[in-house]
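Hi F.,

I've been meaning to write this up properly since the lab meeting, where we talked about keeping a consistent format for the predictions we share between groups. The idea is simple: the sequence comes first, exactly as it goes in, then the structure tokens exactly as they come out, then a line or two of notes. No screenshots and no reformatting. I'm using this chain as the first example so we have something concrete to point to.
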Amino acid sequence: MKLYFAPGASSLSAHIALREAGLAFDLERVDLKGKKYGKDKDFLKVNPKGYVPTLQFEDGSVLTEGPAIVQWIADQAPEKHLAPPAGTMERYHLVEWLNFISTEVHKAFSPLFSSASSDEAKARQRELLGRRFDYIQQALGSHPYLMGGAFTVADAYLFTALSWTGWVDIDLAKWPKIADYMARVAARPKVQAALAAEKPPKQ
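Output, unedited:
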């Protein structure tokens, strides 16, 4: 099994999930601008969508889209409790979180990374994200993680998306529960291992 990833991209979520699940996998770094991996291999032949994460299996088949990938990963190691059992209401709440993170948080960052966005547009986007962060802070309450006391794949995804705040001048100190949450997730050994593995090799 191979995870195609790019440093700083949303593929970090799947990378964390794989390590938390204890699954064996290889990493393949992708140049998202050039759509290449390895020295000059065409990434579009692996995933015509052209983005990560992409999970490739031994038979050559692939699974794409982060929320789908992390749920598959969680289901391979049910004893790790990275997702509630399928069919339970708790599982649907996990899906609810994954959809919220994908559509209302992850995608909301895109205009902030675009050179085509005006300063006014970026200011409006920061306000929108601020309202989403207000909701997350309220939802966290006194719980250590999104689903309560247990770390799940939704936390891997939210941690990944919120890590981009440092690149777009959003200070999480305005949301102290989220800031504490980020520090709590960052301290997990498997998260630290994923972050270390994605650093560029020393020259």
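Notes:
The helical segments are 11-21, 66-76, 89-106, 110-113, 119-140, 153-162, 176-186, 189-197.
The domain at 83-188 is CATH 1.20.1050.10 (Glutathione S-transferase Yfyf (Class Pi); Chain A, domain 2).

If this format works for you, I'll send the rest the same way.

G.
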